[in-house]
What does this fold into?
Amino acid sequence: MTDTKENAEIGDTWTNWSGNQIAKPMKVIEPVGADQLKTLLKTAPGPVRVVGAGHSFTPLACTDGTLVRLDRMGLVRSADSERKTAWVNAGARLKDLSPALEDHGLAFRNLGDINAQSLAGAISTATHGTGEGLACLSAETLAFKLLTASGDVMTVSRDKDREVFEACRVSLGAIGILVEAEIQLVAPYNLHRRTWAEPVDDLLSAAGTRWQTLRNYEFFYVPFSGYGISIAHEETDAPATPRPESDDDDAVLGLKRARDYAGDNVSSRREFLAGAFEQFDGEDVIGNSWQLLASERNVPFNEMEYHLPVETALDALDEVITYIERERPDVFFPIEVRKSAGDDIWLSPFNGEGRISVAVHAFAEDAYDFFFSHIEPIFRRAGGRPHWGKLHNLRHRDLRSLYPQFDRFCAVRREIDPEGRFMTPYLRTLFEPEA
Ligand SMILES: Cc1cc2nc3c(=O)[nH]c(=O)nc-3n(C[C@H](O)[C@H](O)[C@H](O)COP(=O)(O)OP(=O)(O)OC[C@H]3O[C@@H](n4cnc5c(N)ncnc54)[C@H](O)[C@@H]3O)c2cc1C
It folds into this structure.
């Protein structure tokens, strides 16, 4: 056991990315291979939780038992350039996998707006990017090697142990440990990226057409400005062009300064921001897909995101903006709006239909209780389903009514982990009626 970091963090405190979730696991294990993981798991105190990059805002990875990290288990295991598929370490980070896959002539079809997450962490919460024709990352999974509570490694796919495979595609780590994943990829491609600002009414009247015609389209509404920023990506064969370093973090800190300076004087803030937007220089660059789709986010925040039916989403967005601009002058982070294609995954929030995702952020040092008291009721009235890794207050009964296959997922979970080795009090509130 010399090359594991077993016990290295006993007594240490674990926190997630934004710092709103804290845990004190009794044991942390970080194996270098599947056999070692299997051995270590036998004596690991429960509950056992795997953590990826810790980028979820809910207590999904929190445990006072054993925390498992798969960071040291490598990247690409094998690649099939004909089928455009690869088996990879499920615990590898997307930012490491993208260049490694490129070496095999492969690329992710789509990504979210960061790539710091682990593949398994991203899959397990249905992490998504944007694009009317592009589904969440979980929809790209073809098979898994799963380490179960009983210590068996199962290979599951549509053709083999299908029920377990379907449960694993979005599982919140409640089925077992995803050790390896087989994923569907595409050939590497370049994107033409454009960003621009415009009055939000113009933006909203064009958004539907933009989603229909652009490969990737999303927008950010900047509270108290009346302006939105659009980001569009189109596939191109043209070569990459130089790209200045991103100033996204500076822009967000500029919005914070405008908030701090204006205080409750909302009209002076609106006037200042409108002036700034008149001078907004958008981007117009060409580059490699994974470098353009993913950005860095270094100003910490907490977030609630709901995936809403297309018919109700923009009215719900309007209600959210009205509430924030009337009651919450402390909010300065832009509200992010994206669209994804539907899929058939049991616990995917996009199950059955494409949805529009609306995300509200609060600076990590600011209060976010209004997410639950005022924003979540708007999203729920609009028929939304929460992002599994972002803040929400839903419990077993609520979730059952939102997901047609919820009971099926819970049945597979009970069957494969009857003693609840992967269950924490938080997960029980999601998956067990009596909790
Ligand atoms: C700055 C920032 C930007 C973000 N941008 C986006 C975005 O653009 N789109 C989007 O949809 N989401 C986004 N998210 C949310 C994020 O993608 C999800 O919360 C994702 O789950 C985080 O991945 P992770 O590797 O950090 O997983 P963690 O948060 O560490 O874990 C998430 C879940 O996966 C489980 N898990 C991890 N590894 C395994 C494994 N090997 N086997 C079984 N279960 C496992 C964990 O137990 C847990 O239940 C963002 C979050 C942040 C902080």
Remarks:
- The longest strand covers residues 190-199.
- The chain has two domains: 76-187, 190-386.
- The domain at 190-386 is CATH 3.40.462.10 (Vanillyl-alcohol Oxidase; Chain A, domain 3).
